[in-house]
Write a structure and sequence with these properties.
DNA polymerase, domain 1, Rossmann fold, binds magnesium ion, about 10% strand, two-stranded antiparallel ribbon, 2 domains, about 220 residues, mainly alpha
């Protein structure tokens, strides 16, 4: 299961800019969103934290959430074409190889809303590689997402998968912690914004500076 931002691609702040535009439109302010650290957080949590700091009540946030999400997806759909989207080295090749294997299921595990994940991946023709996913709108905390993914795997493939057979790939300490929390194999990649030494301190099972040496990654699947 792959994280998206910093792991598969870098959409160069298209997401952040869209969230800020949508929030400004719906709430008239962006709270402290411009200063917030988005890293590892799910989209709903980013919205909650930012708006709560501005003094909005939970019920006001909830009342406007549907509209806010719709506006966010609208802006993201526009901005994704304005900002340069970079797919990291080896990703496409790796996904192409893995997609052909019938002993592998490719999934997403991301804090993005389902729709924003789709917008970001579709622009580089990568969305269709994934047959399932767990997203920010499934659970507010990243650590709860593996269980959601497990249920989806069960529904789609009729397999009660063991987490030791699941690889969670991400670019932040939160992806590593999430994998460990679930008992999955953690693969950290250095393509995001986190220095390698910080990632290595979390003791991921494997670390790759990027996935350009995807043959090396494929060896993990032999165990
Ligand atoms: Mg990430």
């Amino acid at each position: 299961m792959f994280d998206i931002d910093g792991t598969i691609l870098n959409c160069n702040s298209a997401g952040r800019a869209s969230l800020i535009e949508a929030t400004k439109e719906v709430f008239g302010t962006v709270g402290r969103m411009e200063k917030l650290d988005f890293q590892g957080k799910t989209d709903p949590v980013i919205l909650q934290e930012s708006l709560q700091i501005m003094g909005y009540k939970q019920e006001d946030i909830e009342k406007n959430l549907k509209n806010l999400k719709e506006r966010y997806f609208y802006y993201l759909g526009e901005n994704i074409h304005k900002y340069e989207v970079i797919v990291y080295p080896g990703i496409k090749e790796l996904l192409q190889i893995l997609k052909k294997r019938d002993d592998i299921a490719l999934g997403l595990l991301t804090g993005n809303f389902t729709e924003s994940a789709k917008i970001k991946l579709s622009v580089c023709n990568l969305f269709d590689y994934f047959s399932f996913g767990a997203f920010g709108d499934d659970a507010p905390m990243r650590n709860l997402l593996p269980e959601v993914a497990k249920k989806r795997i069960d529904t789609i493939y009729k397999i009660d998968i063991s987490f030791k057979d699941v690889i969670i790939i991400g670019d932040t300490i939160y992806d590593i912690r999430c994998a460990k929390y679930a008992g999955a194999v953690s693969v950290a990649v250095g393509t995001g914004w986190v220095p390698a030494d910080i990632l290595l301190k979390e003791n991921p099972d494997y670390f790759f500076p990027d996935l350009s040496d995807f043959q090396q990654f494929l060896k993990l699947l032999e165990d």
